[in-house]
Structures are given as C-alpha cells and as structure tokens.
Amino acid sequence: MDNLKSYSVASxxxxxxxxxxxxxxxxxxxxxxxxYYFGAGMAxxxxxxxxxxxxxxxDLFAEGALSTAFVPVFKEKMIKKGLHEAFRLANYTMSxxxxxxxxxxxxxIVFSPGIVYITAHGFVSEPDKFDLTVNLTRIMFxxxxxxxxxAVQMGIxxxxxxxxxxxxxxxxxxxxxxxxxxxxxxxFSMPIYTLAIxxxxxxxxxxxxxxxxxxxxxxxxxFKTEFKDDGIRKINRLLxxxxxxxxxxxINIVVSTLMASLLMEGSMSYLNYAYRLxxxxxxxxxxALGTVTLPKVxxxxxxxxxxxxxxxxxxxIGLSMFLIIPSAVYLAGFxxxxxxxxxxxxxxxxxATTRTAQALFFYSxxxxxxxxxxVAAPIYYALGDARRPMYYSIISVVINIILNFxxxxxxxxxxLAAATSVAGLANFFxxxxxxxxxxxxxxxxxxxILNGKIIFGSLLSFFLTFMIRFDHIIxxxxxxxxxxxxxxxxxxxxxxxxxxxxxxxxxxxxxxLNLIRRKK
Length: 520
Hints:
The structure is a single chain. This protein is mainly α. It has 20 helices and no strands. It has helices spanning about 10-40, 40-60, 65-80, 85-110, 110-120, 125-140, 145-160, 165-170, 170-185, 195-215, 230-260, 265-300, 305-345, 350-380, 385-410, 415-435, 445-470, 470-475, 480-505, 505-520. It is globular. The protein starts with 8 loop residues before the first helix and ends with a helix.
C-alpha cells in the first residue's frame, strides 16, 4: 500500500496536463510528418478512414467504456477489500479483455472489405482507394488489442494515484508514427503503409512503457479468465449502458465518415487535421481533469463523502472551463495562423490550410462541450449510474446526425464539424442539468457567474489581441515569422486574459498561479 498515493484533483491534473502536453506536442509533430509526406489526398483519406474503424472499437474496448467502468470498481475493491483483491480483479479484467478482443480482431480482419464498404462507401467508385483502405484496416485492427491492454494498465495506475506515466504512455504511439514514415518511406511503393506500421509499433510502446510502474506498485499479470466474478459483473453492469451510449456516438462517426467520403476529395483529411488541433487543448486540460476526477470521485463515493464530492466537481469543472473556454476562442480566432504554422509545407498547400482552418473554427465551439463531458460524466459513473449518460449520448447523436444534413448545404465538409460541436454541447448541458437530481447540495449559481466572467474575459482578450494584427506587422514569409506571430498572439492573449479575470476576481487565477508556484 505504500506505493499508493493520495492526491488533489488540481495538482494531479497539473501532472497529467504536463505529460499530456508532451504527448500532444509529439502528436502535432506526427501530424506535421503526415502532412509533409502525404498531404491531403487519396492515400491520406484512405488511412484516416481505415484508422477510424479500429478507433471506433477502441472507445468501446479501451479508453472509453471499459476504462471508465473499470476504475470505480477497482477503486472500490482497493478501499474495501485491499490491494490483493483489486489486483485479482485487474487480472480477470485484462484476461477477459484479451480473449474477447482477440476474437473481434480476427472477425474484423476477415470482414474488412464489408466494413469499409459500409463506413466509406464513397470509395467504392475508386477501386485502388477502396483496396488500400481495406489493407490498412486489416493491419491496424491489431492496434485494438494493444490499446485495450494499455487502457487497463492506465486504469490501474490512475487508481493507485500514479498519473504521470500513464499520461506519457501515448507519446510512444506518436513516436512510432513519426519514425516509421521518416525512416521507411523510401522502401515502400505505397508509403502510406508506413503510418499503419507506426500505429502498431506505437501501441506496443505504450504497453512496455507502463509495465515498470505497474511492477513498482506490486502488480503482476496472471492470465486467468473469469466472467462470473462479482467485480467483473459490476463492471459489466456499468459497461453495458456505456457501450450502448458509445455505440450510438460511434454510429454518428460512421455516418459522418460516410458523408465526408461523398464530399470533395480531401474532406476527411481537412476534418482530421482540424480535429487533431482541437484535441490538443482538450487533451492537455479537459482529458487531464477527467482522468484524475474519475478515481477521486470514485473514492469519495466509496467512502460516502458526498459533501466533498460536490466540492471536487465544482473545482474540477470550474478549472476546466477556466482553461478550455479561452482555448476555444483562441482556436476559432487564430486558427488560420495556427494551421499555417503547423501544417503548411511539403504536400500541404495554402488551400488545404484555408479548408482545415474552416473545420477548426467549427470544432472550436464544441471544445467546451467535449471537455465538460469529460468532467461531468465521471460523477454519474462513480455513483453507479451509466444509464443517464447513455440516454444523453444517444440524444446528442440524433442531434448530430440531423444537423449533418442541415449544415452540409451551408458549409460543406465544415458542416460536419459544426454538427459535432453542437451535439457535444448538448450532451454536456444534459449531464450538467440533471446532476442536481442525483446529488444534494449541488448549486450552479456559482458556475453560471464564473463562466459568464470567463466568456467575457476570453472574448475581450481575443479582440484586444486581434486588433494589433501581428500577422500584418510581421510578414509571414518564413517559418520563424510564422512562429513569432503565433507566439506573440498566444502570449498577449494569455496575459490579457489573466489580468482581466484577476480584475473580475475569478478565484481560478490565484489557484492556477499557486499551483504553478508549488510545482516550481
């Protein structure tokens, strides 16, 4: 038990944010490598469509439903029955997972042509593109098993209060996808296969990287399947509605992929590049807070400390919005400059920059909803209620699909990003609105006032920064000029935002500054 740590949400989120930032920076390097070597064309569209298929299942078997259902039950076992019983549950979970996912992978490889036919039907008219997508899908299906095992490892370490290593693990995924195209590109007649190989190498790296930390807390893996264990049954009770809810959202992604495949060539690539940029602040701030919130609130529920549960949620959601809302405004306002700096080189031309920035503009608004769901949903799961998040997810998916048809005539491929964002916001507000019925003492008046100040400060700091027009003062003629413009925009907006919110007496400013001082 000595290796298990107590922690605060803010300080632990800081560790995860730093680790995730490193991973996301490497993720941007990965996207730059992809943009440089492959641009936004046939091969890239095929890879995006192929990788999206195991990614759909990844959310069900790995970083989505399973890890979210596993952590509350594992944490409860730790507190009430001890570490030995918790590790026994982890072994059962991992062994059962390996057995089930192995079968899914085998079926996926066999039926890849049919899966691609359904999910990217627009490729059928281009046989070479369709065949390439099928081959890439078969290779990357193996990634599903690797990421599933890695997700359980992360759940064990997070529950034990170890957040840094699990948050750094995805860096190895990015490293794999960076080094493979760089070193293997010249050896393939169809170089896009190097990205698929990188996916597999990166997945292996994530598992290997976390294993020493697991051993340091006393965990030893023993393969033993047990589907009737009470802990496994409790995980399954949480897992079933989560899978239904995530399945609905995955159906939405399938529909969006299908619709993007019918639009102009490069649509999938523009959306993918923009989505990756949007995911940078989401991962550094939103996902980090969600990652540390789940084990924390699970512990408070197990100990029946509901007053602290309310405080933990208010602190987490307040800090999340304090960081996410200005990030969303920044991406929406300065997206063109950011895309130009990160992607525009090699096969990625100026038209691709403009179209990717269009998609990023609409994704930015959804960033608030995506981050909010990461913090709000763990409260429901910790309380053993996975059904209501499932219902809200299904409702948001229906909204998304309807808006896809409404927005595409207005904004073409960018309409898909707009629909996704509106649906994400709807999901968050449904979770937030109905939380009061589950926890006594939940009061949103403070959150309304706080978020009003944050939105005002974000917009004002953006407009003041925008008025200076650094992109007009500095000619965007080379990479250093592009870096200077983005850096000056970022620094000035952050400084103005902090000053404005300090004047408005927003407590999160002092909390963040104190946290930074303690880390130093």
